[in-house]
Structure formats: C-alpha cells, structure tokens
Amino acid sequence: MLPDGFKIKVFADGADLDVIRDMSQRPGIKGFTTNPTLMRGAGVDDYSSFARDVLAIVKDRPVSFEVFADDLPTMETQAREIASWGPNVNIKIPITNTKGESTADLIGRLSHGGIAVNITAMFTLPQVQAIVDVIDPSTPAILSVFAGRIADAGRDPIPLMQEALKMMEPRPLAELLWASPREVLNVVQANEIGCHIITITDGIINKLSGLGKDLDQFSLETVEMFYNDAQKAGYEISPSA
User: Fold this and answer.
1) How far apart are alpha carbons 216 and 123 in whole angstroms?
2) d(CA 30, CA 99)
3) Over the stretch 101-156, which tens digit does the pLDDT of each residue have?
C-alpha cells in the first residue's frame, strides 16, 4: 500500500461496514478508527450493535471507539464498558468535554488501569503535555492531534507535530496519530517527521497507489480525462455566424 521506506502505519477511518470489511482484507491497513459523527453520517442507530459488528470483522488489529457522554463520570463508565468488548479495542476520549473541562485525570485513571486510550480532538502542545504527564508508561496509548484541522486554521501543523513527538519521548508506548488529513501529501509529511500513525478515509486510501507517480504520465492522463469526458458529453462549438 505504501512505497518501500515508509514506516508510518495507516489506520482506516470510517463507519461503513462494507468499507471496513474491504479494508480488513488489506494487510496495509494496520488499524481502524471511527467517531460518533462518522457513525451518524453512515446511518448507524445502535452504537453497541455497530461496534460489535466491527469487532466481528476486525479481530487482529486495533479499533478505536469513542465515548459520547459529556460528564466525566459517565465518560468513565462508557469507557470501561466499551473496553470490555474486545482485547483490540482502544477507547477514544476527547481532550475536554463540551464545557472545556479537561479529561486528563480520567485518561490517567484509565491508562493506569491498563486500558489503551486514544485521546482525540487534540490541537495544542499544552494538551499533548497534559496527557504525557498522566498516561502510564507501561500502557499503550494514542495521541490524536488534528493536524488537518490545524492546517484549516491557516497554521502549519508540522512544527507542532514535531514538537509533540519530542514531548512523547518519555512514553515509548505512546504513539502520535496525524488526524483529519486532507490529501495524500499529508501521508508523506507525517511519515517524514516520524509520526507513528495516520488515519485516513477510504477516499484517500484509494489514492495511495499514486504515491511516487511520474508527473509527465500523470499530466497525460489528466489531458486524456478532459478529452474523453468532452467526447462522451458530445460537446460541440459551432462557428459564429
């Protein structure tokens, strides 16, 4: 799936069971992520049933499911229940609730209890440091920094992601995940800085075959596409009278 020399792991992001089933057949996909927004968009109406269907398909790679409560005690209850669904489950916890209250203490308790957490909706280095300070060094964890949305705000995410990697060095089992990528180039960028994981939708996954493609050939294919579509549409330009 990725050219030789790429070390970054690709996780498939989505909530369509047919797509997840297809992606599970691809050895280049090293894990799966989803969230309530993707699930709602895919028409999922039963969270538990959907999650169990996914876990029946994906048994050998990590799958991240997100809590959806807004108060911290209920978040913890949901997290512990979801964690019981399978040994390959990672629990996604947002960095704060909707009131801006930090979830760091909750994340620390879960991590020190042996639960693999995936901290989501992270945008800043202080947020990264807060999590590094509380997670158990002996428990795997994923820190999902939304590099794509940082770029949407007009900021270059690469220096931030590089600094996050440095902050995480004391936690060797913690992995940095490049979240919300917008294009194949983001896979290259994330790999070049040493990011551990990138989670991408099937649309971008299916474009990975173009990595390293000859640009002259790409140019010719693009010209052919424009020409063929014009022919199929039957376009004509008649001389002016």
Assistant:
1) 38
2) 34
3) 999 999 999 999 999 999 999 999 999 999 999 999 999 999 999 999 999 999 99
Q: In a 3-state reduction of DSSP, which class is residue 66?
A: strand
Q: Where are the domains of the chain?
A: 9-210
| Number of Cβ within a 10 Å radius of residue 118 | 28
Residue (of 191, 205, 203) closest to 147 by Cα position: 191
Calpha distance 92→144 (Å, rounded)? 9
DSSP state of 138: T
Q: Is pTM beyond 0.85 here?
A: yes
**CB burial readout 221-239, b (16+ within 10 A) else e:** eeeeeeeeeeeeeeeeeee
- Give the helix/strand (H/E) hosting 143: strand 141-145
Q: Which CATH superfamily is domain 9-210 in?
A: Aldolase class I (3.20.20.70)
Dig out the tokens for 182 from the structure. Answer: 């917008």
Residue 98 has φ and ψ, to the nearest 5°, of -70, -15
Q: Let me know: does 128 contact 122? Beta carbons within 8 Å.
A: yes
